[in-house]
Write a structure and sequence with these properties.
The protein is of the alpha+beta class. Strand 4, helix 3 and strand 5 form a beta-alpha-beta unit. The longest helix has 11 residues. The chain is globular and about 45 Å long. The N and C termini lie far apart (41 Å).
Length: 139
């Protein structure tokens, strides 16, 4: 089935996005207000079928040197059609994100989607550090 992509923030369906993210493995219980703030601070792309949102992805970036790809999802009913890959490709090709030195993402189970677009495991994981608060939305 056909779909369209849009970078227009006015087209994003916060109910759909929050509904998915609050039950995802990476942001269980995330408050709606947090999702709205994350969207406001990101470059987002939505996937739509007949004006209904079926997918979402966002990039957090300084738009000069670095980008972090986050919250990529496609609703169950539309999976397997290449929509996730199309959204990631659209973000990677976006004119505001050209010439970046480094992109990052974290995924538990979608390595193949990203590897097909040129993503690779971190070359020097010993250089990376993180602070993680996994239950922050359940407090």
């Amino acid at each position: 089935m056909s779909h369209s992509l849009s970078f227009d923030p006015a087209e994003l369906d916060l109910d759909t996005i929050h509904g998915f993210l609050t039950t995802s493995y990476w942001s269980p219980g995330i408050p709606r207000e947090t999702v709205a703030r994350a969207i406001a601070g990101s470059l987002c792309v939505g996937a739509y079928r007949e004006r209904r949102q079926i997918g979402f992805a966002r990039v957090v970036s300084d738009r000069a040197t670095f980008a972090y790809l986050a919250d990529v999802f496609v609703l169950e009913e539309a999976r397997g059609e290449g929509i996730g890959r199309a959204m990631v490709r659209a973000l990677m090709e976006h004119h505001e994100l050209q010439g970046l030195r480094r992109w990052f993402l974290a995924t538990l189970d979608a390595h193949g989607v990203y590897e097909a677009l040129g993503w690779q495991p971190v070359a020097h994981p010993e250089r990376l550090l993180e602070i993680t608060v996994p239950d922050i939305y359940r407090r």
